[in-house]
Structures are given as structure tokens and as C-alpha cells.
Amino acid sequence: MAHPAPRDPAPTGFAGGLTQAKSLAASLPELLVEARRVALTVAAGWHGRRQAGTGETFWQFRPFTAGESSTRVDWRRSARDEQLYVREREWDAAHTLWLWADLSASMRYRSKLSAVTKRDRAVVLMLAIGDLLARSGERIGLPGYLKPTAHRQATERVAATLPLIAETTGFPQPQPIRRFSDVIVFGDFLDPFEDVAAQLQQIAASGARGHLVQILDPSEETFPYLGRTEFHDPESGDRLTTGRAESWRDAYRAELSAHRDALRDLTRRIGWSFLVHHTDRPAAEPLLALHARLNGAGNAGGVRIADAGGRP
Question: What is the pTM of this model?
């Protein structure tokens, strides 16, 4: 998507890719801290897939129920109170979740209406959801770059790998993605619909369940521009100047609405979920929405098409 021209055009080619990788690497410590803060904000309402079952990890103590075998009693814990307790272990069925973010040039856009770029918000959301999933014992990975792992430091490993994909666009390669796994993709998805659909359907063919989080700057939603404005396409470098930008507003909004409706229809058909987030809204909002989708809330198929960004 074209944006009002930045003061300093983004570098292109190999040198530009190296510059962006270094820029992302430099900002990762701060973004990781922000991701952990956001994750802690929603952790109280995050229950993951944890439940009692057969596993090796301690989950909780619960009161002994009459009729249970006495061999299940934890006598050391019970000795502290005048009540018998049973030690429950966590159900050991870690799930594989693939995380991905479009970190291409268009994601580096930020207008005056937002405090963060789309890229930084995508990284924060990806690391935050990764942190929450890792706490729940899930295996998380980056397709083609990082094999799924349930390690407690999985989020740090994801963060350390991100500079390698600093200039990637669109969707991940589908080869490592398998059936019964989940894929969470963060991006603006503003490329031509045919291109987005082709990449999305390649991944869906693997049988994995997916979740798209469209991240937009508020200006991309409202098109607030007036008068003479120069628009710059950060992907191709093309520039276009208009004398009355406001005269394009209605047509632009109609085009964006049609593009989003097509994305919603496509994700609905293939059984994926779709939500929209705007960078002027709290990052916790899409995390809570993703939690509902990952746990199958909304309907029997686990898919609920909605906008978590606070706008229709």
C-alpha cells in the first residue's frame, strides 16, 4: 500500500536488507520487554490448554474425594492441614504452533496517529503470544527458521531469529507446517488479494488451522489526508502526488472494505480465523481475541470472524 512519503526513504537491495536487519536486532531487547509486559497484562485471563491428566509436570493440589484410591494422596502436603490432598499432574499433550510476521517495508509505516510502527506491533504481539504459549507448555517455532520447541526460553529463541527474516514478505513457506498444528500470521495483508489468497491456500492445504491478525495504522483505516499529498510505495519505490487527497477518501475506504471482506470470506471457507488490530489500540486486545480462537471459542469450528481493534 502507498503511504505519504517519509522524510528518509527506506534503503533498498542487499544493503537495505542488512540495514533493516540491524535495525530490528537493535530494537529487539526493548520489544521483548514490551512483549513480556503485554503478556503479563493478559496472563491472568490466559488458561491455555492446561488441564489435569497423565503427564510428568506438577499442576496443582486438590482435595481428596471419597472413593478415590488412597495411593493418590500426597501425605506430605496433607500433613500441613487437617485435610487430605491429591497431587495432580498436567495433561501432557503439547501442541505445535507456528508464528510468523510480515516484516517487509510496508510494515515499517507509522503515521502521526500512532506511537508505534506496524512492524514493532507485529513483533510485540508475536513475542507476547509466544511467551504465553511457552508458559502453557506448547511448542512454538518459525517455519523454515526455528523448529518447534517447548523450551522455557523459546520466546528468546524466536526473538534472536527475527533479524534473519527482517525483509520477508507475506506468508511463511508451507513445507514444515503439518496437519493438527496452528499457524498465527501477523501482517497488513494489503498485497493484491490474489497473491494473498494463493499463499494462504498453500498453507491451508497442509491441514493446519490458521489465524490471521491484520495490523493497520489508523491512518490506513480512515485516510485522513487533505490537499496536496505525495504517496510513496515502500515496496516498489513508486511515488504518486495528488492535489486533493480528500477526493480519494470514499473510493479508498470502499476498496479497503472490499479487500477485507474478501479476506474474511476466504478465511471462513478454509476454517481459519481473522481479526483486525489497529496500532493506536492496546496490544492486549488481539492477544485476548487470539486466546479465544486458539481454545475454540465462538462456535463448534473454533472460528469467529471479528475485529479486535475497536472499529467495524
Answer: 0.75
